[in-house]
UniProtKB/TrEMBL annotation:
<dbReference type="InterPro" id="IPR040893">
    <property type="entry name" value="RADX"/>
</dbReference>
<dbReference type="Pfam" id="PF17659">
    <property type="entry name" value="RADX"/>
</dbReference>
<dbReference type="GO" id="GO:0003697">
    <property type="term" value="F:single-stranded DNA binding"/>
</dbReference>
<dbReference type="InterPro" id="IPR012340">
    <property type="entry name" value="NA-bd_OB-fold"/>
</dbReference>
<protein>
    <submittedName>
        <fullName>RADX protein</fullName>
    </submittedName>
</protein>
Length: 304
């Protein structure tokens, strides 16, 4: 069938009601959002953002309501989609944006692709990777992996991806989303090492839409975290740690196969370093559970 591209959509969307099919690759995936309220009677008030791209650039795609439980877990970073009978809307101005791995890629920020179960009923087709042709011109997924030795030079709120061997994982803790709110964020602290520094990555891992992975993080697993944000604490010791963002994905052993990051040079370097390590030596240093107060409070009241 005749295809369109994202650049052409941006130029012509106001003058059209029906659009030609789109062929795109998913580059980023947000956590699943629940927006239900007691006074609104909706069956499945869910929403998820994806950043999709073709040869012309990158645009947001929004999955709505009952399409979320049907499709969310099938739509992975790297998946190629053929979309038909979708809608185009003006972009929601307050959504978060991931930092693209390819800084040269054009971003179409004024509109977004809307996928609904009706008005119109969207057709979503996943194209198997072995059937994807180079002449389609779809961009590859690119990452921004850093090593632990590079972390201390990065600015506050910088976006990056990391891989490391887990040496500590804390218990799951809760924090209120807002003061006096009954909604909570679930999170846990973890340490991971990559051999480039004496210090570990300190990771604040919020429960994203991957409960199966979040609950199974344990010492001695290879942990990959994407779209993490650098946080510089303002205490005297200037501690640096990483926290998850709305678009973060977390992977541990058993989930790595077939992921696009396995081709990344820094991931391959980490695997080579791990092959030179003694598992028994690392296991002696591993810790699990317990209370982990971080960032650490000052050692005297005068410093508050």
């Amino acid at each position: 069938s005749k295809l369109t591209n994202l650049g052409h959509l941006e130029m012509t969307w106001r003058s059209r009601v029906h659009f030609h099919p789109l062929l795109v690759r998913i580059l980023h995936k947000s956590r699943l959002k629940y927006y239900g309220k007691p006074e609104k009677k909706m069956d499945m008030p869910y929403q998820a953002y994806f950043e999709v791209a073709d040869g012309s650039g990158m645009m947001s795609m929004v999955l709505w309501n009952s399409l979320c439980p049907e499709w969310y877990h099938s739509l992975k970073v790297g998946t190629v989609l053929l979309l038909d009978k979708y809608a185009i809307k003006s972009s929601y101005p307050f959504k978060t944006h991931p930092t693209p791995g390819d800084s040269q890629m054009k971003r179409f920020a004024t509109i977004e692709i809307s996928l609904n179960v009706r008005d119109p009923p969207t057709e979503i087709n996943i194209i198997p990777e072995e059937m994807v042709k180079p002449e389609w011109g779809l961009p590859e997924v690119k990452y921004r992996f850093i090593t632990r030795s590079e972390l201390d030079d990065l600015p506050h709120n910088h976006s990056c991806d990391v891989i490391g061997l887990v040496t500590f994982v804390g218990r799951a803790e809760r924090a209120r989303k807002r003061e006096h709110s009954e909604d909570f964020w679930l999170y846990r602290w973890a340490h991971a090492i990559d051999g480039t520094s004496d210090q570990p990555f300190i990771l604040e891992l919020f429960a994203t839409s991957q409960p199966d992975v979040f609950e199974r993080i344990h010492p001695m697993t290879y942990l990959v975290c994407t779209q993490m944000r650098v946080i510089l604490t303002e205490n005297s010791s200037r501690t640096v740690y990483l926290t998850t963002s709305n678009e973060s994905q977390i992977f541990i052993k058993g989930w790595h196969n077939g992921q696009p990051y396995t081709k990344d040079a820094k991931v391959k370097n980490f695997i080579q370093w791990m092959k030179s390590q003694s598992e028994a030596d690392q296991l002696k240093k591993a810790v699990i559970g317990g209370y982990y107060p971080f960032p650490r409070p000052p050692d005297s009241f005068l410093k508050y």
